[in-house]
Design goal:
Layout: H1 2-6, H2 15-23, H3 27-40, E1 43-46, E2 49-52, H4 65-74, H5 78-90, E3 93-95, H6 96-106, H7 113-125, E4 129-133, E5 139-142, H8 145-153, H9 157-174, H10 183-192, H11 196-210, H12 215-231, H13 236-256
Antiparallel strand pairs: 1-2, 3-5, 4-5
Helix pairs in contact: 3-4, 4-8, 5-6, 5-7, 5-8, 6-9, 9-10, 10-11, 11-12, 12-13
């Protein structure tokens, strides 16, 4: 794998052995080390044909892939870093239109299409994210779940909540004609944003939608409705939400067992 990544230039003799020694042969860790060397300017060229541009007498690599990812993310410009963090909040898979709306809503100065495209290219070239599809809308995915996890946890909790709220708004706008398909995502983002009442409403709608084809998934959403309703101030609406959830769970518990009750 390292030969395929690096090539056989005389200047990199011994580098593969050093990388292997530090990564233990973990493929993802290995790729991240190579990418970090490229970004630092130590390696120059193209895949399969790199040369060592400056000596690497001692390979300075964090001891874990998480630490290496955190260092690489920290070295991004503020624009690309916030875009990657926002994408991590949206999910492992995300559409460019949703990401664009989230970033522009939360940025002090909205980015132009050109700036957004350039930032995404940086993230793709750095192999943080991969292009997944172009039709009907451009969609991307994180190269590895660890990349998403590290980017997500590099945001403070309050910042994550703001991105979740913006993601919910973007999804509602972009899926206006087919909201039923996005109910589970909307419930998740509103709950993570700290809007428990709106989350309970969407969990109820998700439960009703899933009930047509997936009873177990429907009951999981009803469980969330019940749990959230219990935490909310008492009103006629929260009482109705809680009562509806309890009734469904009680009626269905005989089919699925006590884990749903």
């Amino acid at each position: 794998m390292l030969e395929d990544l690096l090539g056989n230039d005389a200047s990199i003799d011994g580098l593969a052995r050093s990388i292997y020694a530090r990564t233990g042969g973990n493929p993802f860790f290995t790729e991240e080390v190579v990418q970090s060397l490229i970004e630092s300017g130590a390696l120059q060229g193209i895949r399969g044909s790199y040369r060592l541009a400056k000596p690497v007498e001692r390979l300075q690599v964090p001891t874990t892939v998480q630490a290496l990812l955190a260092a690489r993310i920290d070295h991004l410009s503020e624009r690309e870093k916030f875009m990657l963090q926002s994408a991590a909040v949206i999910g492992k898979d995300f559409s460019e239109p949703v990401l664009r709306r989230v970033v522009n809503e939360l940025s002090h100065s909205p980015l132009s299409e050109t700036e957004l495209g350039a930032a995404l290219r940086v993230l793709k070239d750095g192999e943080f994210i991969l292009e997944q599809s172009l039709y009907p809308v451009p969609e991307c995915t994180f190269k590895h779940p660890l990349t998403q996890e590290v980017a997500l946890h590099s945001l403070l909790r309050e910042q994550r909540r703001r991105v979740h709220a913006a993601a919910a708004g973007a999804l509602e706008e972009l899926h206006a004609g087919r909201l039923d398909e996005a109910t589970a995502l909307l419930a998740y983002h509103h709950e993570e944003a700290g809007d428990s009442l709106t989350a309970a409403r969407w969990h109820q709608r998700a439960a009703e939608w899933a009930g047509i084809t997936n009873a177990a998934e429907s009951l999981r959403h009803w469980q969330r409705v019940r749990s959230l309703a219990r935490l909310l101030p008492y009103t006629s609406e929260t009482a109705q939400l809680g009562a509806s959830a309890c009734l469904v769970l009680l009626c269905q518990s005989w089919s699925f067992g006590e884990q749903y009750w």
